[in-house]
Each structure stands twice: as structure tokens, then as C-alpha cells.
Amino acid sequence: GAVVSQHPSRVICKSGTSVKIECRSLDFQATTMFWYRQFPKQSLMLMATSNEGSKATYEQGVEKDKFLINHASLTLSTLTVTSAHPEDSSFYICSAHPRLAGDSDTQYFGPGTRLTVL
Amino acid sequence: AQSVAQPEDQVNVAEGNPLTVKCTYSVSGNPYLFWYVQYPNRGLQFLLKYITGDNLVKGSYGFEAEFNKSQTSFHLKKPSALVSDSALYFCAVRGLRAGTALIFGKGTTLSVSS
Among A22, A93, B53, B102, who pairs with B92 as Cys (CB 3.0-4.6 Å)? Predict the structure, then answer.
């Protein structure tokens, strides 16, 4: 099946610093990737839709200046948490769906990134 | 608006017994429904989906799901549970347009005892 990777898998940073998380589709191209946030024992909440070559679309309540998204190529999207605070600590998961005909609805998820802000 | 509901926070079943994890949906238009599984500190793994066709959908790891239009349900089932099936299960529905993000239920923790 299609594989999505994320890097890093775990990061600890100091309050006020910025952290970049990469999401890569390893064996398929993705014009659209999605960034979710998950709190412990809770569901996934969509943060933003990352569109290759254009600006990301953010969900209501998500600060676009704090969570910077760049989708520079058909296989890479990055999420940068700027000026991180302890309340940004969470599990961040990306997903993508292949451009293949007949499989445009199935989304494949990365393994997630655990961010801890001290 | 598209939504799914998982009425159970936790399902407990003994190994070897059949399991059911419930999901109901509310959609505009045709439903595009999915089941994913999440193991601790891991991303989500795709199990199966219903787009159209047979109401009984077979997926990975012996799981299947039954689409019931009259009851607006899409319950996940497995004839014989394994301890290794213990995980967090999410039902999801696609957004209104193709290529949009999935909308997830709150998740159901499945615990299979030996």
C-alpha cells in the first residue's frame, strides 16, 4: 500500500522556539496533504489542508501564522510550529491520498510526530 | 454536514469471540465511509472503505464492515477476535467533495482479553 512518512517521530523543544515537521509520500504523488492534531485518547482534528503550489487552507480556529504549512512538491509538505508553547504539545499526524485513478478517496497516514514543548 | 458517531468509548471482548465496533453516519449525498485502526503512538492504518456496491465490505486483517443505509450504520466486525486486535478504532466519512479531508468519529478502544 501507499506509504507516508513523518520526521521527526518525536521532538522536545523549549518554549518560544520553532519546530518543523516533514510529511513525505514515499511511493506516490499527492497534490493534497492534510495535517491533523490529536490529543491523548481523543479523535483527530483537522488543522489544515496543504495544497501543492498554493496556500494552505486552515480550519476555523487554527492560527495560520503559528502553524506554517508549505507544500513545496508533490511528495513533501512541512508543518512549522512557530514560537511554540506548552499548549502546542500534541501528536501531529499528516495524511495524503494518491493521485491514482480509482483511489482518490483513501487517505494514507503518516506515523505521527509527538511534540513536547517545555 | 458530514459526521460520524461512535457510541461506545470502549468495547471488551474475549479472544476467539466475534467483535463489533459500532458507527453511525450522517451525510449529504452518497456516503464514503472508512475504518482506520491506531496502535499506541502510531499513525492510522487503513482497514476498509465503502464507496458503493456490496453492503458487506471486506478489509485488512480479517475485518469487515456492513453498510446499512436504512439504519445509517457502518459497523466494523470480525468473526474471531485476537489479542493483537486491541487498539483504537476510528470510523470516518469523507467530506462533501472528492479529495477533501476525512471527518473522524471520537474513536472506540477495543480490548481483547486472552
Answer: B102
d(CA B74, CA A48): 27
B98 neighbourhood in chain A, CB within 8 Å: 104-105
A76 interfacial to chain B (CB closer than 8 Å): no
> Pick from A37, A53, A34, A54: which is nearest to A95 by CA?
A34
- Residue B31's nearest CA partner among B85, B73, B90, B62 is B73
Substitution target in A95, A105, A108, A114 with the highest count of B β-carbons within 10 Å is: A105
Task: Give the helix/strand (H/E) hosting B58.
Answer: strand B56-58
C-alpha cell at B60: 485488512
> Do the strands A44-51 and A108-109 form a parallel or antiparallel pair, or are they unpaired?
unpaired
Query: Cell digits for A53?
Result: 503550489
Predicted confidence band of residue A104 (pLDDT cuts 50, 70, 90): low
Q: What is the pLDDT of residues A40-85, one digit of tens each?
A: 878 899 999 988 888 899 999 999 999 999 988 889 999 999 999 9
Contact A44 B46 (CB under 8 A): no
Which of residues 5 through 34 in chain B touch A, CB cutoff 8 A?
32, 34
Question: Per-residue pLDDT for chain B (114 aa), expressed as one digit of tens each?
Answer: 889 999 999 999 999 999 999 999 998 888 899 999 999 878 889 999 998 889 999 999 999 999 999 999 999 999 999 999 999 999 999 887 777 889 999 999 999 999
Q: Does B63 touch chain A (CB under 8 A)?
A: no
